[in-house]
Amino acid sequence: MATKLKVFQFPAREDNYAVILHDPENGTTISIDAPEHEPIADVLADKRYSLTHILTTHHHPDHVEANAVLKGEHDCTIIGPEAEADRIPGIDNAVKDGDAFEVGGHRVEVIATPGHTLGQIAYHFPDQKLLFAADALFALGCGRIFEGTPRQMHESLQRLAALPEDTKVYAGHEYTLSNAKFAVTIDPNNEELTARAREIEQLRDDGKPTLPTTIAKEKATNPFLRPHDPAIRANLGMESASDEEVFTEIRARKDRA
Ligand code: ZN
Ligand code: FE
User: Domains in the chain: how many in total?
Assistant: First the structure.
């Protein structure tokens, strides 16, 4: 059995999350993306960890901004998506869909999730039951489609939805409250969703994070993973459309919301 990684999630920038993983046995310390130097450096200093790796998901500035400074301070190895390698500061190892590698003895599997950007990847730690989905899959939402097509985003999300249901999902942003308000307009009779929406309001009122989530929760309540659902289809008047068409309509409505 692999050592259980400690996971620290904390806010950065406006609404990003930074995540640090730490193996207490061998000291391996991984930052998932590097949205902002100060909060990450503070946690590392507080815990007396030296950063060994950064796993970059995509090229947006709010995910790579601190790469260069952290690398300068810790001489860490930066792993990122091959398709965006020329836009990932300090990248050492480029990886692509289907690749698997080890970090400090922990298996990491790369899943391509194009849509938000064309090259975005998710990192799956199967033995730890952890998924880092960045700006592809959010709690009750999905990323805006900046570079890809709705078809690509739909396929990316379906691949993530196929992971084991007890996988914990971390995402790049705390967007859950606005996602929840939108989700209930798409799937108003889903009792699990309405209960979750209330829970999320409470968490945010208390200043608490709504992440991580799980694959099981998202499959039950996230409309972007449920375009096949008969109640959602009936609500949208799209009973005979394809899943992809229903997904595309939900995404378009969210963009206008
Ligand atoms: Zn992004
Ligand atoms: Fe982002």
Answer: 1
